[in-house]
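Usage

Read records sequentially. Each one opens with the input sequence:
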Amino acid sequence: MSKSSPVEDGSQWEAIATCDQPSSRKSVGHAFMPGAGGMNRSRSPAARPRWLRPRTSGHLDGPIQLRVNEIGQIFHTLDPLPFRERDLDAGVEEYIVGWAGEIAEKRAITIIVYLPPAEAGRDEARHIGEAMRNYFAYRSKVLGWDLRDMFRTGRASLAIGLTVLAACIVLGKVASGLLGAGYFGRFFDEGLIILGWVANWRPVEIFLYAWWPIERRRRLYRRLSLAQVKIEAGDPQGAASGATLDQG
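and closes with the structure output:
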């Protein structure tokens, strides 16, 4: 999708707001994200974003497309690591991950990077796909480490919580026996039991709810680490079947 096509092709994209200033070479570009609207992460604080959104909802059927003027716009400019091990630019990563989540899990992910002919002919262009896959594979490993740390914390919290619960039950029975079956006996007995269950709130949260979002994200990064990345010289022709990020 070229710069001039999104608003003119009203059948595919709906403009939510327009940009006060023309985008500069330093801007991150127009990221057409799924959901209520897209976002433009401009590095210039004076420019307001242009938000676009698809008129129709559902899964993305086409490839994820990136249009950049320079290869360096794809990666973090301050990363000192070799080219194949660099981190992706934060805006590019957010855009790719956001749209990848809209692709059905059984479908392979394809990323097309459009470069000017001079940039597409550089030796670094041949390694863009490998660098992207390496980055997403690393992110998947990091989330795997986070999951292991979370479960380790959950097991320790569960051991502490069950110990506190057992102690509260015993103390509640002792207090009930000393104070009798009246109001004060019931107060200490039931209060200590409630305290014991509250001590197990954290492990219950971890094992029932907290790990699912991290696992979904990890699976998505793993899918992206297997994505097919194509390098094309020139501009994308149309945006009817895919999502395009303009980094110009």
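Summary fields computed downstream for this record:
- The first strand starts at residue 13 and ends at 17.
- Strands lie at 13-17, 30-31, 51-54, 64-68, 110-115, 228-233, 243-247.
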